[in-house]
Design goal:
This protein has two domains: 138 residues, no CATH class; 65 residues, Alpha-Beta Plaits, CATH 3.30.70. Helix content is 58%, strand content 16%. The chain has seven helices and five strands; from the N terminus they run ββαααααβαββα. The strands form two sheets. A three-stranded antiparallel beta sheet has the order 3-5-4. A two-stranded antiparallel sheet has the order 1-2. A hairpin with a 2-residue loop joins strand 1 and strand 2. It is elongated. It holds the Pfam family DUF4956.
């Protein structure tokens, strides 16, 4: 059996090294498609790109190198539990971004822990199936991403129940956003101002900005 010798490191079989390199390539390609071609085109958040790639690489190498410990499914589920706990111990992460994070972890675990007898055709099919499902949810079903904006509003006369249309029209005229719904958070009658949270579809607002 041919081995790869690196100074100061025990020799590694060439076959094992190539096996890891190919699996790593599969994982990196799948992560690129999910993050760059799917997530990036349907989200304005760019601060998650680095995190997604870093977590993908780290999880893959961790799972692949510890595969001989025979933790497998329990280890994979443990990763989901750990990141689930982190979700509630750090700054709030939007649900969609958290979902993509779990997808990235799942792809990395699948590519790292799938058995050696699983051919590259089957592995490619699994990755394509997962990416295709995400593409369907994003494109075909046209799932809309909702965003919100807190507005300090001084014309509190429009907060009257009978002036709802006037209120929405005034807010849309001032913000240039097509409002989907709104919620009055706070009213200060002494200062004649109110805090209103408006909700809108991100795609609709993006189209308006381009115009």
């Amino acid at each position: 059996m041919k081995t790869l010798q690196i100074v100061g490191i025990a020799p590694t079989p060439i076959d094992d090294f190539l096996f890891m390199a190919i699996r790593f390539g599969f994982n990196l390609a799948a992560t690129f498609v999910v993050v760059v071609l799917l997530y990036a085109r349907n989200s304005k958040r760019k601060d998650f790109y680095f995190s997604y790639f870093a977590i993908s690489i780290a999880v893959f190498l961790l799972c692949f190198l510890l595969e001989n410990v025979k933790l497998e499914l329990g280890f994979a589920l443990g990763l989901f539990a750990i990141f689930g706990i982190i979700r509630y111990r750090t700054d709030t992460i939007p649900i969609k971004e958290m979902t993509y994070l779990f997808v990235i972890i799942a792809v990395s675990v699948i590519n790292a822990l799938s058995k050696a007898h699983l051919g590259y055709v089957e592995l490619t099919f699994v990755n394509v199936l997962l990416v295709g499902a995400l593409w369907t949810l994003e494109k075909v079903l046209m799932l809309r991403q909702e965003d919100s904006l807190l507005v300090i509003y001084e014309n509190i006369e429009n907060l009257h129940k009978e002036k709802e249309k006037e209120l929405v029209a005034d807010l849309e005229n001032r913000t240039g956003i097509k409002i989907k719904r709104y919620q009055v958070e706070k009213i200060d009658f002494l200062r004649d101002v109110a805090q209103i949270m408006i909700y809108f579809d991100v795609k609709n607002s993006t189209k308006q900005e381009k115009k």
